[in-house]
Design goal:
350 residues, alpha/beta, Rossmann fold, 6-stranded parallel beta sheet, two-stranded antiparallel ribbon, globular
């Protein structure tokens, strides 16, 4: 378990070795889905499933399918010039059709990637196994689990497995939840209900929302990892689970919690995070003092980029904090490498 109050901030790069999309890939896939184009009444471009969902979405949101399709074409033309789908939707925060169409594209694309990821579990087959067990074991998630289980006794202090840990996940997928729910069962020899109860002790926040809760989280809009919506729980019914930057800012309570947990933590681990300005603004606390440690992947970033990132982080943490000798922005390490090289430090007390 973690012995120091630690915040892990997760970005798109953390999903690469699990076969989840980077920000650029997500933009490309969304563009292909929502680029609905007709010629003489016949669809010649775009995704059939997305078009069907647009038609239902138009009825649910009292919109017009033609306007949604036009918004989809606008997204397909402009999204490549934005840093991410979040940035693009932030740019068009006053355009409801673009936001609806973009959120629909996000949900459908993320669910499809979940289904093809290493973490997918076919619940119709037994025993339940990840699609690619070896691939999952070779990812940073195994290194992460090694830290969590250190010092934990299954029939003793299992409730402390997530102690001192807060996760802020800027991704829309449920990879971390999917992995941990399965792994605590296998590692600690507990059943579904006990695992679900244990997972409630994990403080995990999705600032931009997520496609849906997982079934074991027992919420009304649940959806299996990589599953297909059915019955009344259709893609368009999940739209409101996704939030834009402006919608998150107006959410108040959760945003306040994020900033409060940031302000009392002492160790910060950024994984696959791109350090977009708007994302940093969401988590910037009002006041912060004391000594902190910062570890971050900055794979393939230039030295000059890293210096700018450090300057930006000074604005996030404020000028009243002091840095211990541990402040690393690693330009040659992916997420797994970061845990391999600093895992002992992550698990240690000050």
């Amino acid at each position: 378990m973690f012995h120091v109050p630690t915040v892990m901030i997760i970005g798109a790069g953390a999903g690469v070795d699990l076969d989840m999309p980077t920000g650029d890939t997500l933009c490309y896939e969304i563009a292909n889905r929502v680029n609905i184009f007709f010629d003489q009444g016949e669809k010649i471009r775009g995704n059939d499933e997305t078009l069907d969902a647009m038609r239902r979405l138009a009825r649910v949101k009292n919109s017009d399918v033609n306007r949604l399709a036009a918004a989809g074409r606008q997204i397909a033309k402009g999204i490549y010039y934005s840093g991410s789908i979040d940035s693009y939707l932030h740019t068009h925060n006053d355009n409801d059709n673009i936001k609806l169409c973009g959120k629909l594209g996000i949900i459908q694309t993320i669910v499809e990637f979940e289904k093809n990821s290493k973490l997918f579990v076919d619940t119709a087959k037994h025993p339940l196994r990840f699609r690619d067990e070896d691939g999952v074991r070779d990812s940073w998630l195994r290194q992460f689990m090694l830290l969590l289980q250190d010092g934990i006794i299954a029939r003793g202090n299992i409730k402390d497995v997530f102690k001192n840990l807060i996760i802020i996940n800027f991704n829309y997928d449920r990879c971390i939840e999917q992995f941990l729910y399965r792994m605590v069962q296998d590692l600690f020899l507990i059943g579904d209900d006990s695992a679900a109860e244990l997972m409630t002790k994990l403080k995990l926040y999705h600032p931009y929302g997520t496609v849906a809760a997982l079934p074991w989280q027992r919420q009304t809009d649940s959806l299996e990892f990589g599953g297909s919506p059915h019955g009344e729980n259709t893609f368009e019914e999940l739209i409101d689970n996704i939030r834009t930057f402006n919608e998150e800012v107006s959410e108040g309570d959760e945003l306040r919690v994020l900033r409060e947990v940031f302000s009392v933590s002492k160790r910060f681990i950024f994984l696959g995070f791109h350090f977009h300005k708007q994302n940093l603004e969401l988590i910037t606390p009002r006041a912060m003092k004391g000594e902190i440690e910062v570890f971050a992947t900055a794979l393939n970033r230039s030295a000059s980029d890293v210096e700018e990132i450090k300057a930006g982080m000074t604005r996030v943490f404020g000028r009243e904090v002091t840095y211990s000798r541990h402040q690393y922005y690693e330009m040659k390490m992916n997420c797994r490498d970061l845990f391999t090289n600093f895992g002992t430090r992550f698990a240690s007390a000050p």
